[in-house]
């Protein structure tokens, strides 16, 4: 079956994917094996089937040989009534050489011979049938098991992704984590689906055939297998070269893609500056490099299959020529008598060598990658979770809304404090505006309240209870958050708002949207509340996205509200809507606002000025402004423009310095 | 074993085919195949090699037959030689040999055998060589075709007018130039070759089989229709199953991706449990689909091989009978079982090719959609080179509507800008400001009316001569991979370093550029230094300044920059506008105060025009915009002490 082993594509595809070497194979395999434990019974069956399958492969060439040695040769020979002349078929001897299947009565009639042949072939058909059933079942059982393991792993990863605290995501970009998870599960899936069984059964088949051949005749077997080392060498060498070459093609396609992306996204500039021809010339260069890298890589894969095929035919020639000459001369090969049947049997065996070798060498690296992939998956699963419920954590009672930070210090990296000894108290219903330059620690403060991070010293208390003493779920359920970049899921508007409270009815969702004035623009969307948003959905403006986030928080109806105001500019009308919405949302709740809007600050009960992780000023807007300190400068650089844009608004005029 | 290999092959490249199962339209594919004719020589080598290697493949069983027959004949001759003479003659007759044949078989057996062995090896080598030449040259051909297609798509995209780009997304176009090209390439490079090979192999084998042993051929023939039905039915069932796998996988990945990107929201609203439920359901869905595919494979491949093996068994049985009756030799017998595989192999290949062809033709259609896209903005056949301009811009009753739309974006707009004047454009989003500035460098063509520059209709002059005299600074600045210097010299690659530095200095960009260790050679864009929004904007201003254009188009907004930067950008912009005819999408109070003319747009029409003071009194809309949208200028901010 040499031709089938070749072909383009097939295992060659495996050469194109990136391969990695695992670090600790034993530990990873052990851990992976533990996932298979619940299915060990199935695996046992699979193992049994692999063995049966290999056996049917080993036995059928042997049976073909028996067909010749026990039936055909005696039948032809007996016609010449020359019993003593034929090697091994003595008149009295009932067992010709190499014939173990049956005894041959002398002078058997043709009909008897044919009946015997029919019996033997019937046996072979039975074996083929068995092989087919076992082969199919084995494949299905293995994928069944593999898929179940994979699903469990996926779910575990996903749950862990949720448990991991925000410090993990601060260090690891979401995109990277994502591609790691998908790539690693993907390689694992391929291996679990077919590579593992293929390699195991291929190896088993190789060894079994080798042993069977050696049992029949050690020297003849060694001669027949003379090309096997060459096959292994050719396969490994060509695969390695191809893999290296394909690495280059991946690099080149990266360039092509970057080039495309940039020139298409920037096409307006390209045309404005008359750069079309130059860009086209540049693209043609990277395009050509990609073409050439591909041709080079394919020169290796294209050479592998014909090489193996040629070696396969060489093996056939060796088996027949060496065996034939010895048989003709009637010589023994170190004690083995060569019969025609033995030659045909060995012919069948060497034909079965080619494919497993190719399979193993190509898929082996896949298995390596999969082990490396599992290793990284386990690494992720082992990433410690910084923020968890402590044993005996209680349910947070219904919050009244008093929030205290008592001498709070916090750090993301040990030794680099982000907050130092920060204390503040918010009475129920108060609005606290937090201002300060980028990196001062504003975001850290609001992250501590729903306990996204833990403090390193001091305590965050809500209604007098330390947030570390209550369950995360009961705490966060009572806190609403509106982030600067509104994250929308690719789902309907309805469900995006419903994200605030899972069990809210459609009417409640719409009421929340109405409350924050998001209903006007939603009603104008093509499918209103049923419009699908996000990646593949309608694009909303920044301001509209914020309105949805505000509606989300309104639906949750929390006692404590955390708000990170957006800095990006939105059009005037939407801006006005957002301000009105926020005013409604803040009313009656304890609120912490990272403020970028002057109106928010003016209305705040307390303004907290943060600089380098410390509270440097606090008080009301007017008081702080009069003080002429840090807040005054901040105001000048950040808010004055806004103050000028609404000259009619009430407010303190800033004395020019 | 073999089954698993095929399963692996069929499962691994499980990409969804966007074309689906719709009836195939082969026009696109036929056009794509014609690209092969550009590489006649290589393609001819590939096809010739294919022909030779396939014929060689057909020869190999023949050679193996002769190899085995030499052995058995020698063996028989040896056996006969030991018989008594009368019996010997009888036996020789019975075998159908002549006395010479007998003698030769007896004495030359070893030499014949070695010769036959060498024959096999020689042929195998030749076959290998030509098989390599086939694959290699097919790859060269198809990669060259892909190269041409990619480049043609790219240059078409680069030259298509804005109205085309308004309707397409970057990602979509990228898929055309990469994935779709690759699918077409696979068909051109492999599909066609494999189809031809399969055809030669199938027909050749059947002819040889029928010629050598008619009755034995009839024995194996019935397995053929079974295999065909199986393969055809399989590809019909498998395609939609694979597509489902892809759909479910991407659903699962979407959930994962959203939960990673939106982790804070998930945690904030305590939605872990319900998201986990969602994920679990999606994972289960995917698994069930995978198992459905796996069930199909578990049945199909073992079954196909069973059918093939049954064919082998039939040959074994009937062949044995014929050998005993001396109507068949051992060698022929072996040959038959080898040829039988040559029958099944092409059948499997052909079904794969049909699936490949469906995908490739859908891709080809999409590729030619781009290549055939009508470009409305091109040089007229007799377009002239626009001489150096003064900067006089005139719109005469300009109406513009997007292709296929009846609503005009601009209707009957007329105005005139004299050389050196600054025109401020005001209006709400969608009022037509951007359209006006896009019509001047002829990014679009007007639907009615004329745009005149120094009296020339912009449609009568060559595009590059027009655009090279217009400078554009937009709010969202795209910088390209390369050095800062490359980016500033984007519109004039031949500019000297001194000119680049002068432009950067005028744009207030020189200082921050020099603060980078590599100065003007600092790489930006992908894998380079990322510039802040304000820095990008100043590079863009320098880029426009370097052209020293007579007409300038700009958006004076500054987004997300600190006060100090904003001040510097404003200074740079004022510098830029000096002495040029400028069209400004105005966001700043100072711009409208300094403008020679202000055009107030509403729903595609100019509703008011004039100077600031006049408009403030006359136009309510202007007053509203002035108060609600425009931003005061910043001065050099006070140093924080």
Would you write up a description of this structure?
- The complex is a heterodimer of chains A (657) and B (641).
- Chain A is an alpha/beta fold.
- Helix content of chain A is 61%, strand content 10%.
- In chain A, a hairpin with a 2-residue loop joins strand 1 (332-333) and strand 2 (336-337).
- In chain A, helix 19 packs parallel to helix 20 (572-586).
- The radius of gyration of chain A is 38 Å and the shape is elongated.
- Chain B has 641 residues and is α/β, with parallel strands linked by helices.
- Helix content of chain B is 64%, strand content 9%.
- Chain B has 23 helices and 12 strands.
- Chain B has helices spanning 2-11, 27-34, 40-81, 85-95, 99-107, 109-159, 162-167, 170-212, 214-220, 223-261, 263-268, 272-324, 330-371, 433-439, 463-467, 484-488, 497-506, 510-514, 533-547, 563-577, 589-594, 612-618, 620-628, and strands at 393-400, 410-417, 422-427, 448-453, 456-457, 470-473, 482-483, 523-524, 551-555, 581-585, 597-602, 605-610.
- A 6-stranded mixed sheet of chain B has the order 6-9-10-3-11-12, sandwiched between helices. In chain B, strands 2-1-4-5 form a 4-stranded antiparallel sheet, covered by helices on one side.
- In chain B, helix 1 runs antiparallel to helix 12 (272-324) and helix 12 (272-324) packs antiparallel against helix 13 (330-371).
- The radius of gyration of chain B is 38 Å and the shape is elongated.
- The chains are: A alpha/beta (657), B alpha/beta (641).
- At the A-B interface, helix 1, helix 4, helix 5, helix 7 and helix 9 of A face helix 1, helix 3, helix 4, helix 6 and helix 8 of B.
